[in-house]
Write a structure and sequence with these properties.
Blueprint (H helix, E strand, L loop, with lengths): L3 H7 L5 H7 L7 E3 L5 E3 L2 H5 L7 E7 L9 H14 L4 E5 L4 H5 L7 E2 L2 E4 L1 H5 L5 H21 L6 E6 L3 E3 L9 E3 L10 E3 L1 E3 L4 H8 L3 H9 L2 E5 L4 E3 L6 H8 L6 E5 L4 E4 L14 H10 L2 E5 L4 H16 L5 E6 L1 H7 L12 H19 L5 E6 L6 H13 L3 E5 L1 H4 L5 H13 L15 H13 L3 E4 L1 H12 L7 E4 L19 E10 L4 E6 L18 E2 L5 E2 L3
Parallel strand pairs: 3-16, 3-17, 4-15, 4-16, 8-11, 17-18, 18-19, 20-22, 21-23
Antiparallel strand pairs: 1-2, 2-14, 5-6, 6-14, 7-12, 9-10, 12-13, 14-15, 22-23, 24-25
Length: about 550
């Protein structure tokens, strides 16, 4: 059996100009990065401005498990399947982060015969977008430390510097560091730290910005620190936003690539969903809507994280109205939620499935709270029994939800035509999107957090630790109380306890810190023991990755 990377390396890709031509994009609007990937020009937005918008489909999932759900694989397979049934569809996906690629998760370009290519490029340096974000982020840090060194005219309190350096790699040793050591010439000593680039505010800003002017304004609004009088200091006070924008001007342009079956894909931006807002860029999604009749996008991890933030942050800011939700699940993952050990998940066990399916039900009900129709995509494995699959279909039917058994990993688009047909039919039966966010922005921040905790996580309530309560009061004093919230929480459970599977009950969400991302336009709420800089596992995926003398990469996924 071929691995994902072997399948991808055997693919016969089309020149990127031919993929662009499918969407009516000429060479003048392509900025090629080699033969098989390109950035799309700013002029294309004006050329397509009067095109009608396509229908927006969000692909999300149940809570992830060690068995894997295959959300990106289903997204790619659905895009390929749309082409098979004669529909003009465009995928709008996130860029993978190097941290997970070399850590636990591995690549993030789909799998089997439902992949985006060139797979190695996409999973590694791609077009350099994330590197540009890292550079822009760290330029602001350098300007900040230089300001301290040159006399600190703004009277910045070095004990209250909020903005951190970043690196797109899992490196726990950099979470908390000391800088400026080695004497006066090397700067002012202070505590500092790193977070992973995809959790940075710069990443969030780029993904939410509408154009270069908006990008610059948002960068200038980054809250960097407080001064000795307790007043805020922003990036614009350090005159940083212009140079940061210069570093990001090309990164703001979406990237065009293709699937194994030559359907078009826009890949742009990659914020984590457990610690950031988990969606590809607004610019890529909006452009895709002008280029295709259907746009398939995804939100990271389970619907309690990625989909909630997609709806309550991205759709709210961008004015997007999704038409349908595809909710991905597997028999194996549902049995895991029912208490089966990972080693036994391939053994048929309907009783365990009956216990674990409550997780799927909760995610379906949560999506209904946004007034959207749902189609459940069962990412099928050969070990799934007919009895198990029928139980899921019957269960979902009672909830008024269509179910499709997908074989897109093994069969590509052909294995997803039933899903594509049901998604189109579901959209056609809904005259107009009834989408609405979960909460109103005029609610206090604490009430927004409580709404999400009770309605989506199904918690009994929220507990703010003293440090979080103090930070919350400061944020509201700055006049930022009317922003949406971005909750950082474990992806493995509906609760803030990663070991609480299924549908946990009788728990309280504990908030340990609250941070203002003024440039991005949301308030970050940290729960549990979530880290903004992940670490590598005992056996990192990097051990299996290699490159031969001819430049061929092996073991990437």
């Amino acid at each position: 059996m071929l691995t994902d990377i072997e399948i991808a390396q055997q693919a016969q890709m089309l020149p990127i100009g031919e993929i662009a031509a499918q969407l009516g994009i000429g060479d003048e609007d392509l900025e090629p990065y080699g033969r098989y990937k390109a950035k799309l020009s700013e002029a294309l937005y004006k050329k397509t401005a009067n095109n009608p918008d396509g229908k927006l489909i969000l692909v999300t999932a149940i809570n992830p498990t060690p068995a894997g759900e295959g959300k990106t694989t289903v997204s790619v397979g659905l895009g390929q399947a749309m082409a098979k049934i004669g529909k003009k569809a465009v995928l709008a996906l996130r860029e993978p982060s190097l941290g997970p690629v070399f850590g636990i998760k591995g690549g993030a370009a789909g799998g089997g015969y439902s992949q985006v290519v060139p797979m190695e490029d996409i999973n590694l340096h791609f077009t350099g977008d994330i590197h540009a974000m890292t550079a822009a982020n760290n330029l602001l840090c350098a300007l900040l430390d230089n300001h301290l060194q040159q006399g600190n005219e703004l009277r910045i309190d070095t004990r209250r510097i909020l903005f951190k350096r970043c690196l797109d790699m899992n490196d726990r040793a950099l979470r908390n560091i000391l800088v400026g050591l080695g004497g006066k010439i090397n700067g002012v000593p202070r505590e500092d730290g790193f977070q992973i680039t995809v959790a940075s505010e710069v990443m969030a800003i780029l993904c939410l910005a509408s154009d270069l002017d908006d990008l610059k304004k948002r960068l200038g609004n980054i809250l960097v620190a407080y001064n000795l009088d307790g007043k805020p200091v922003y990036a614009r006070d350090l005159h940083a936003e212009g140079a940061m924008t210069a570093l990001l001007k090309d990164a703001l342009k979406p990237n065009l690539v293709q699937t194994l079956e030559h359907t078009p894909v826009l890949i742009h931006g990659g914020p984590f969903a457990n610690i950031a807002h988990g969606c590809n860029s607004v610019r890529a999604t909006k452009l895709a809507l002008k280029l295709g009749d259907y746009v398939i996008t995804e939100a990271g991890f389970g619907s309690d994280l990625g989909a909630e933030k997609f709806f309550d942050i991205k759709c709210r800011y961008a004015g997007l109205k999704p038409s349908c939700v595809v909710l991905v699940a597997t028999v194996r993952a549902l049995k895991y939620n029912g208490g089966v050990e990972k080693a036994d998940l391939t053994t048929p066990d309907v009783d365990a499935l009956k216990r674990g399916i409550i997780n799927l039900r909760t995610h379906i009900e949560n999506m209904f709270k946004y007034h959207l129709p749902v189609v459940v995509a069962i990412n099928r494995f050969h070990t799934d029994s007919d009895e198990e699959l029928q139980f899921i279909a019957d269960y979902c039917k009672k909830l008024g939800v269509e179910t499709s058994m997908c074989e897109i990993f093994a069969k590509g688009g052909e294995g997803g035509t039933d899903l594509a047909t049901k998604v189109v039919e579901t959209i056609d039966m809904t005259e107009e999107s009834q989408f609405a966010p979960l909460y109103d922005l005029d609610k206090p921040i604490s009430k927004k957090v409580e709404t999400i905790a009770k309605e989506i996580y199904r918690a009994d309530g929220v507990k703010f630790l003293p440090a979080a309560a103090k930070a919350l009061a400061e944020i509201e004093e700055l006049g930022a109380g009317n922003l949406p919230v971005c909750i950082a929480k474990t992806q493995y459970s509906l609760s803030d306890d990663p070991k609480a599977l299924g549908k946990p009950e009788g728990f309280t969400i504990t908030v340990r810190d609250v941070r203002l991302s003024a440039g991005a336009g949301f308030v970050v709420v940290l729960t549990g023991d979530i880290m903004t800089m992940p670490g590598l596992p005992k056996k990192p995926a990097a051990w299996n990755i290699d490159c031969d003398n001819d430049g061929n990469i092996k073991g990437l996924f």
